């Protein structure tokens, strides 16, 4: 049995213990010969981890992408089979999630309370350790739901850890969002684990939550107490999981956390599980410490093992498993689904039906990509938007026939638009945000410079920005480019162990740099001093005003642009314009 650790009265919910092995409803069929060409196997160790992160509601699989065709029920079957067939009773397995469960898929976003049903589905997985991401902290509704339905739920209150986020109760008290930390022994090998979880320096939490800077939290008394209660000689592995990228070239937040831990635990294995930047990544911190980050959107299950734990030279191994049925069968040694998994898949289908997520708006004849096609390609989604979709914007407030520039930030698009049915779900997936159009009337000569100005400046809203594009390390160029049309398209990950992390060898995809903003330009006969409409999302109003003021500061006609110059343009959101475009194309093709 696992050691029970009680953390005192102040944190009544902060009791942390492990759980016993799940019960198997049925015996599983082991098929020894599920060979998949191009598959790299997992190297199991004494201690094994499976990790998901940034699922953003993608629990119903990727219906237009065969490479990610598993749903949450399949994932539940997989972990159960994997534990039974591969881990057994001579090794241990810890299942971890690191947050961001909303915003990005109809299954989470189409319910009246965002996440109402997807949380239930997500929580069917038997996580040993879990925590929250920043997407659980934007709205009060999400935060309250997360706290009561997961962090303090009967099932997870002993598994939920957050070392630097507090929940604000109805009467205004701050209480830890789960346990501050957690100590347990693994059931099979009695490995002594001390687990912590840190949120990155997120500053936009709603009033029901408070995020403390990780390095500040590590100066607090609770941490000093934890260290003296569990000194170096009494633990085998420190697990630091949380909503924080494991490679952070700008803020180095995780590296600061690591140096604090190393002061207290110079010779202990420290294993990190990262999140938030939506990449597959693996980083070596020192000879006793590595970190894995397992992508996004239920495209990846991260696998990490540690062997020779009690020696001076532990061995780490990592894999990024493609989230599909084939790979799940292969790695678990079974293609038989568990009863629980099958039930959950049925439940997901039923909920998708109830939320009308399968309702077909139109058909997308070919895929449109965010990064794997250049902006100049007609298979690039920003090209589609600026050339075909945004010109359909109508105004019910002003003269829409006036020359205009329509600017959108590229971060407002969240996913590629895949060939196949365009459904209600697709809307949530591709462009989940409703938007308001704002406009300013300015001389053509000024309007012309705004997009370039914004693109020359720093990245707008990094949290929405793409993975590969931001970080050189992940540029596929640093691994051999695989061109083999027999292989499926997918990730070719470059990390600190090299280029062999992906469990399937993929046909590599190119990644092109995409600017901060793109624009649609519709000019009627105009001279440089004629006034045009500069239209943009109200979301980026501050940035546009800054651009206008900076660009015009040396002009004789200089005016200081303020919010008062900005007016509502009216018209449909990009999300709706895209839907209408797809529907109209469909109608035309039937004429
Ligand atoms: C696409 O939608 C049509 C109905 O419009 C349906 O018959 C077909 O099965 C759908 N395809 C997929 C892959 O869901
Ligand atoms: C859009 O703008 C209108 C008018 O300014 C405002 O009433 C509405 O709340 C805004 N909606 C969003 C989503 O910002
Ligand atoms: Zn995320
Ligand atoms: Zn995040």
From TrEMBL:
GO CC terms, sorted: cytosol; extracellular region
Highest taxon of the lineage: Eukaryota
Keyword Cytoplasm: no
Calcineurin-like phosphoesterase domain: residues covered: 48-279
Keyword Signal: yes
Region forming the signal peptide: 1-18
Keywords tagged on the record: Signal
Molecular function per GO: hydrolase activity
InterPro entries: 5'-Nucleotdase_C_sf (IPR036907), 5_nucleotidase/apyrase (IPR006179), Calcineurin-like_PHP (IPR004843), Metallo-depent_PP-like (IPR029052), Nucleosidase_C (IPR053828), Pesterase_C1039 (IPR014485)
Entry protein name: LAME_0E13542g1_1
Organism (species): Lachancea meyersii CBS 8951
